[in-house]
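**User:** My hope is that you can spare some time for a protein that puzzles me. I have put the entry right below:
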Amino acid sequence: MTETVVAPEHLDVVIVGAGLSGIGAAHRLQSECPTKTYAVLEARDALGGTWDLFRYPGVRSDSDMFTLGYPFKPWRDAKSIADGPSILRYVQETATEFGIDRHIRYATKVVAADWSTDTARWTLTLEQRDAAGNTAQRTLTCGFLYACAGYYNYDHGHAPDFPGADTFAGQIVHPQFWPEDLDYTGKRVVVIGSGATAVTLIPSMADKAELVTMLQRSPTWISAVPGRDKVADRLRATLPPNLAHRLIRTKNILFNIGFYQYCRRRPAAARKLLTDLTTRILKDEKAVAEHFTPSYDPWDQRLCAVPDADFFKAMKRGKAEVVTDHIDSFVPEGIRLKSGRILEADIIITATGLQLLAFGGIAPQVDGRTVTLSDQFVWQGALLTGVPNFAVCIGYTNASWTLRADLTSRLVCRILEHMDKNGYAAVVPKPDGELAERPLLDLASGYVQRSIGDFPRQGDRHPWKVRQNYLLDSATTMRTNLDRTLESTPNSAVRQRDLSITG
């Protein structure tokens, strides 16, 4: 008797994550490799990633939208630094306009991914959730796996153990899981943390709250930037939309790279520039010295941008304050500091950072053996050693995420075309010598340092070094000699699967 086993569904490419990166990757794939079959797997019930998950007051981009947006879909809204709902609408519009939404499978989480050398295929174990919340597992195979799920944990934020937290009489909130019904009108609010989330929350809550206090352990670099780009407004008013977008995008890329290089090469001058700017706004040298003059240099950690100086304006109105001190413990009425001062609070917001998670939690296996990610190196910021036909999307830390993400997606498409043209079933990068290890995300920020050891490494030279320079990357990424650093497996070496079982 012959029993026919039904093979699992097979796709050419699977993209993991339907956020800003995943939607951009899908557009590149279907426009540059139109014959490839693909799906976008999204663990949550909606697209948008970060911009759907975060719902706290004032959530916004910390990069200008002319570079954070897609090069193939010009940003049309007025504000250069946009609010979260506007960015989410933009991502949704992109998915609908280009038919990407028809390829998204929601409530579908990749819980295992195993590469078979014999068949040159990934077998993905998926956990799918129905409308009632019930889950079931199924398998799916694909020829190429592209992880576009970012680098932090969507299910858990970083939550330090604060002594006495259970004694606090008010409400404790984490921004990643903002309660929809939170009423802070007339309340005293303390925000623990001084990163992008904190400096966004404070001016947004200041008008309704009695007082919003940002509590930081040490000073932070915060820079005021225009909320609207006046040059962009003029260009968009006089030039055709696509041409205006290209010019604005180029202008902003050059400015951002130039300012970053200035900060890195002339840190003393950059420190003076930032402190002078903040002093002109606050008109309080003592406050600037105490709260906004860090010991680290600009861009050792990501620089926090505040559009139209809204954070500083809230301070000048007396609706917000900054306290630089360490927490001793929570007490019923608020927070006791090491100095002995008690910050009274009705609501405490723990904007204490993200919890990193490599590639949406995917732990790739090769022939049944789990790959130790920290032993691998990243090639061209995209492919991993030791893991065939697997790419990751990692944006810039010093510029708009999408600039690097889009380059990576274009490179993935070029690799797929290269494989088809040469009859390759699999490719994997191989170093041509010893590499000196460096962290993949080379930032001193606490949220990075806590978990970066679980990620792959970058090397000390191109193409193994993740350069934070879009001009260099845009000039070289698509000109890479793929045969020189990619080890390839020809189609003829792959065993064809026999799906008939005789019994």
Summary: The longest helix spans residues 241-265. The chain has two domains: 2-154+355-502, 159-352. DSSP finds 14 helices and 29 strands in the chain. The two ends are 5 Å apart (CA to CA).
